[in-house]
Amino acid sequence: MKLNIDLKTLLTLGGIVAMLSGFVYTTTLRLDLVDQRIERLEADCDSLRRQLRPKKGNKRNEKKQKAN
Description:
rod-shaped
């Protein structure tokens, strides 16, 4: 069996493959950037929670909480 593909079909298939590979590459890149931003925001949120959380044994914080 002989496979005969003309130039137009070959160029069309090559263009489709190039377009799909570019789409996958840019989508992966964007997802990686979003993951990095989420990790940075989670770290910022954790550090803010630690700053806002009153420490046990601190009498000044206990008096403020009882007053509220």
